[in-house]
Write a structure and sequence with these properties.
Oligomer: single chain
Number of strands: 7
Strand content: 25-35%
Order of helices and strands: HEHEHEEHEEHHEHH
Shape: elongated
Function: Nucleoside triphosphate pyrophosphatase that hydrolyzes dTTP and UTP. May have a dual role in cell division arrest and in preventing the incorporation of modified nucleotides into cellular nucleic acids.
Pfam families: Maf
Family: Belongs to the Maf family. YhdE subfamily.
Distance between the termini: 18 Å
Number of helices: 8
Radius of gyration: 17 Å
Largest sheet: 7 strands, mixed
InterPro entries: ITPase-like_fam, Maf-like
GO molecular function, one term: nucleoside triphosphate diphosphatase activity
Length: about 200
């Protein structure tokens, strides 16, 4: 359905995340993947969704000079916000274990920002999902980190993994947002962009 709406546009997904790529395929979109290296750093004054918004926009910058009139570039970033701190991807095994211990028996927020860029338009939106974990034992945390190696995931976990099945006791908001993309907002925004064209 969306693919028909966007038949005159070229959708570019600038993400190596297999989860985000799968979401785009599930939407029935024809899209291409373009990757450019970006140093994912942000000013320390930023907080909460300002961080993910900034990083999503930062990822779009290297592409701006090469966009064509029918291109729609989509960049995205996900953070976990807990105890007034942004948790990104763990640096190593010890960091992953430390992060999961901090999330144990607590509620955190998963924030995903998505930036849509064309030659004459840019819009950044974000979505917030609250996730509550049960109390995790050291054995459970160590098993998850050693087995699933969640080093490419913000907050050191993937909700679609084993840990999501055994640890999540409550979720408020979009499940897919926790996986890395608020698909409902992407769908709506792509339709809006075409309507304005």
């Amino acid at each position: 359905m969306l693919n028909k709406t966007l038949k005159n546009h070229n959708i570019i997904l600038a993400s190596k995340s297999p989860r985000r790529q799968a979401f785009f395929k599930d939407l029935g979109l024809n899209f291409e993947i373009r990757l450019k290296p970006v140093k994912e750093e942000y000013p320390p004054r930023l907080t909460h969704f300002e961080i993910s918004n900034y990083l999503a926009q930062l990822k779009a910058l290297p592409f701006k000079d090469e966009l064509q009139p029918k291109d729609i570039l989509i960049t995205s970033d996900t953070i976990v916000w807990h105890n007034d701190t942004a948790l990104g991807k763990p640096a190593d095994e010890a960091d992953a274990i430390s992060i999961l211990k901090s999330l144990s028996n607590a509620t955190h927020e998963v924030i995903t920002s998505v930036c849509f860029t064309t030659t004459d338009y840019e819009k950044t939106l974000h979505n917030i999902t609250k996730v509550t974990f049960k109390a995790l034992s050291d054995a459970e945390i160590n098993y998850y980190v050693n087995t699933f190696k969640p080093f490419d995931k913000a907050g050191a976990y993937g909700i679609q993994d084993w840990i999501g099945q055994i640890a999540v006791t409550k979720i408020e908001g979009s499940y897919f947002n926790v996986m890395g993309l608020p698909v409902h907002l992407v769908y709506k925004t792509l339709n809006d962009i075409v309507d304005k064209a």
